[in-house]
Amino acid sequence: MLEIIQIIALIQGLFLLSVLLVKQESYKRVNFLLLLGSIVAMLLNIVGDDDFNLFFPNANWYFFQSPLIITLFFLLIKYHHSKQDKFQNRDFLYFIPYVFFITLQIIDDVNGLGKNIWLMIGEILAGVTLLVYLGYTIYTIIKNKTERWMLFFIVPYAFLNLIDEVSFIVTSSHDNFSFLESYGIIGISAVLLYMILFKLVVSPTSVLPKADIKAYKTSSLTKSKAEAYKREFLKLMDKEKLYINSNLTVNQVAQRMGIPRQYLSEVLNVYLKSNFQDYMNKYRAEEFVECLKDEKFKNYSIMGIANEVGFKSKSSFNTTFKKIYGVTPSEFKKTLPSII
């Protein structure tokens, strides 16, 4: 029975990989690579299960076990909600528990340490960290109220890993529930592969966000020029703080830069992924926070500081601030009692 589930999952996974590879240019690169890595790791884990290896009996494919799948899936959800376009180097740190786990497995294979206390403590630490990843992934999905269909995979997967970790802490062995773990994880993986494939067909953006398509198809603005204008615009905002002018318009900034208005709009929408007003309000909210920390504004009211940094209306200010910082301006101010 397990072999049938493995074969079905393998066929589904290979078909899913072919769909992804054919359409890879239409997806954001970092999200695509993380999903691709998750699926490949899952397939290798399915066919290379320690106790029920489909092709190589008694093989131990620990490189593709839960630690790698959990880490990749955690990062996939993280980037899905962060909207970042490039993989941040600091996020490689999330692979430390996986590398630690692999190192311990290699040491055990080479030296046959068995139930060495330090090896066990190391495995427990790596396992607990991965459970934290799973817990945070579940929390992120529930908090953002999107892609909740993924919980059908992550919650049971977390539960099985929790059982395995508790069992290891109590008995110093991962073999107590190997049958349940194998059937459970392989079965859950097969369901997830089917669900991802289904979602890619009926609602592709719920799995992978689309790559940004150039909105200005007739524009003569080249990428190199756009990047130069982007740098000039950001420098202008940082150095001269034009956003403090509450009546500032995109035309005025374009004239200041000596470029056509449509070029600046294209830089903002395509390369900075924001419209002019939202970007100005973002700068204003950040400047507001800096002013809160400045003794010069100690006797200013909240709205008084907001007006100083370029906000014209209280509603726009409150909406923008809460969207960026997650709390109202007055709530944020209360976190700075020693300054104000």
From TrEMBL:
Where does the sequence pass through the membrane? 6-23, 30-47, 59-79, 91-107, 119-142, 149-170, 182-202
Keyword Signal included in the entry's annotation? no
Q: Which residues form the HTH araC/xylS-type domain?
A: 234-335
| Pfam families from the UniProt entry | HTH_18
| MF term (GO), any | DNA-binding transcription factor activity
Query: Keywords in UniProt for this one?
Result: DNA-binding, Membrane, Transcription, Transcription regulation, Transmembrane, Transmembrane helix
- Origin superkingdom: Bacteria
Q: Which InterPro entries match?
A: Homeodomain-like_sf (IPR009057), HTH_AraC (IPR018060), Tscrpt_reg_AraC-type_HTH (IPR020449)
**Keyword Transcription found:** yes
Please report the name of this protein according to its UniProt entry.
Helix-turn-helix domain-containing protein
In its UniProt entry, the species of origin is given as: Flagellimonas oceani
